[in-house]
């Protein structure tokens, strides 16, 4: 069962069941979308489903182009990015590159090595709309070990 919160009505709304059954999954949500992502060990299809609250329907995205040992996902600017979440020191072989869902072309796109998003697994992503909050957080956390970067979308 999956529910979404409607802040305008201050209520939880039940969503219909996704199209693909999975025993193990995790969810990511952003604005008007909810993503159902297969867990690493589920053994099922590598298909991510997206619930579009405007259309009130689940959309099955095409199968992921790569198999990830420890799949990770993050949503940035309402786009889902999928990556290998296995730390570098635990990797015994080359890993698949990160990808993002390009809604305009309806394709999974590889994130190029030159992109600031290529090593998304190394970042903690925090989306804030208020510039003054970001400025305050970075000012209060200026330590020699902290490196703050402004990263644009993919």
CATH C-level class = Mainly Beta
Tally of domains: 1
Here the CATH topology equals Neuraminidase
Q: Which architecture would the CATH scheme give at its second level?
A: 6 Propeller
- Give the strand order, joined by hyphens, for the main sheet: 3-4-5-6
Tell me the fraction of residues in β-strands, as a range.
25-35%
Summarize the amount of helix as a percent range.
under 10%
Structural class of the secondary structure composition?
A: mainly beta
Largest sheet: 4 strands, antiparallel
Helix-strand sequence: EEEEEEEEEEH
Oligomer: single chain
Summarize the structure.
Helix content is 6%, strand content 32%. It is mainly beta and 154 residues long.
Describe, in plain words, how this protein is organized in 3D.
- It is a single chain.
- The protein is mostly beta strands and 154 residues long.
- The protein has one domain (2-127): Kelch-type beta propeller (Neuraminidase, 6 Propeller), CATH 2.120.10.80.
- Helix content is 6%, strand content 32%.
- The protein contains 1 helix and 10 strands.
- The strands form 3 sheets. The protein has a 4-stranded antiparallel beta sheet, with no helix packed on it. A 4-stranded antiparallel beta sheet has the order 7-8-9-10, with no helix packed on it. The chain has a two-stranded antiparallel sheet with strand order 1-2.
- The longest helix has 10 residues, at 131-140.
- InterPro entries: Kelch-typ_b-propeller.
């Amino acid at each position: 069962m999956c529910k979404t919160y409607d802040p305008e009505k201050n209520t939880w709304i039940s969503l219909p069941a996704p199209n693909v059954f999975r025993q193990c999954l995790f969810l990511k949500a952003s604005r008007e979308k909810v993503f159902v992502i297969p867990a690493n060990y589920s053994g099922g299809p590598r298909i991510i489903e997206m619930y579009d609250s405007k259309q009130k329907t689940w959309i099955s995205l095409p199968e992921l182009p790569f198999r990830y040992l420890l799949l990770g996902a993050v949503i940035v600017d309402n786009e889902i990015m999928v990556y290998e979440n296995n730390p570098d020191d635990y990797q015994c072989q080359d890993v698949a590159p990160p990808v993002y869902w390009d809604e305009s072309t309806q394709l999974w796109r590889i994130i190029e090595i030159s992109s600031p998003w290529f090593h998304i697994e190394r970042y903690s992503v925090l989306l804030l709309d208020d510039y003054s909050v970001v400025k305050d957080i970075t000012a209060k956390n200026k330590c020699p070990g902290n490196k703050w970067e402004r990263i644009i979308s993919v």
